């Protein structure tokens, strides 16, 4: 069997080590991409988490990454996974750090979580993902498994892109998918066994 | 439902892990690497790793050491100690930290918490606040318990929250290492002052102490060291005990 490869985008505001290591543990051939020109030659691409939306989008734009990611996802139609902030970057807009335009790969917008009584923001810790539709990404993962979250903003989109939701601040979308593009709000690389399984499933896409 | 976290704290000094009492009389408790692999195997919720000699020695974080530890962590890792500038945070994130704890520099480096949270997002900036009541009134003390700031905890945490900190790691120096329970009044006052999660630290000696910090104090998570170093207690049993007391934890 050939070793499958995955490219992780390193735009300088992220911790890419954890996720790179997790993919390696899945047996993937991992490359860290720092140049926009290398994005299009990847088999699979991961946009990792951590970072603020507007600071990251500005870097994606200035470094020429934005066009390369869009070409990868829309023209080459290869598998793309956004993690945490990486999932939010897939949206059309975000209000974090002033209204900003995102990659527009999954129609939606990113807004701040709205705490109900007794809830605190950021949403930090382990919480359940309730699966809303069949997806390859969550194949063989029990419904309501715990994953590790740390975020203050949420992805708002139409139901048909939603594959998982989580109960906090009135409920939010914790996993999205549209064709070859998918995103998870939690950190699979920090979510022990089931997190590893999500990454494994992405490698099978 | 969001689960309440039980977080082992690893204190690093010079060459290995230590645990003291009231930020003093440090005892060696083994190697950091070993502790991290054991906790990883035991599937803990999260880990906090603090280099307590960095700031007092004026040293920067030991990035190589963090990189080695992070390699063993399949769970979230918060790293602190000697974090003094934006480039320290960037580098810690690069070598595998998920969140960065800022203590001394949060009081003495104007604008650091603000700039860091704008760049990296609030969710990865943890403000570490050590409190002592040595002088009568609770006071924030920086530089591993050696530098009095003159700040009241409630004022300090409000300011840190406004600057963009995403979590407060609140440690009672008076209760640290004594295993007689957390400082519930302190936790309560800080929890009421901010709307970001507060991690209670300092004093856990039994699982019931953790329940008290969460139920009475209102903490979002409990951190502990001595109880896991010096007794048979484990984070996983702590989670079971919490769950039996109606607090949601990971199974």
- Which series of helices and strands of chain A comes N to C? EHEEHHEHEEEEEEEEEH
Q: Tell me which CATH architecture of chain B applies here.
A: Alpha-Beta Barrel
* CATH secondary-structure class of chain A: Alpha Beta
Report the helical percentage of chain B: 25-40%
* Radius of gyration of chain B, taken over Cα atoms and rounded to an integer in Å: 16 Å
By secondary-structure content and strand pairing, the structural class of chain B works out as: alpha/beta
User: Percent helix among the residues of chain A?
Assistant: 10-25%
Biggest sheet details of chain B: 8 strands, parallel, barrel
Q: Evaluate the radius of gyration of chain A.
A: 16 Å
User: What is the H-and-E element order of chain B?
Assistant: EEEHEHHEHEHHEEEHEHEHEHH
Oligomerization status of the protein chains = heterodimer
Please tell me the overall pLDDT of chain B. Answer: 95
Q: Which CATH first-tier class of chain B would you pick?
A: Alpha Beta
GO biological process, one term (chain B): L-histidine biosynthetic process
Protein name (chain B): Imidazole glycerol phosphate synthase subunit HisF
GO molecular function (chain B): imidazoleglycerol-phosphate synthase activity; lyase activity
Pathway (chain B): Amino-acid biosynthesis; L-histidine biosynthesis; L-histidine from 5-phospho-alpha-D-ribose 1-diphosphate: step 5/9
Describe the model:
The complex is a heterodimer of chains A (205) and B (251). Chain A contains five helices and 13 strands. With 205 residues, chain A is an alpha/beta fold. The mean pLDDT of chain A is 93. In chain B, helix 7 runs parallel beside helix 8 and helix 9 crosses helix 11. Chain B has a single domain, classed as Aldolase class I (TIM Barrel, Alpha-Beta Barrel). Chain B is an alpha/beta fold and 251 residues long. An eight-stranded parallel barrel of chain B has the order 1-4-5-6-7-10-11-12, surrounded by seven helices. Chains A and B meet through helix 1, strand 8, strand 9 and helix 5 of A and helix 3, helix 4 and helix 6 of B.
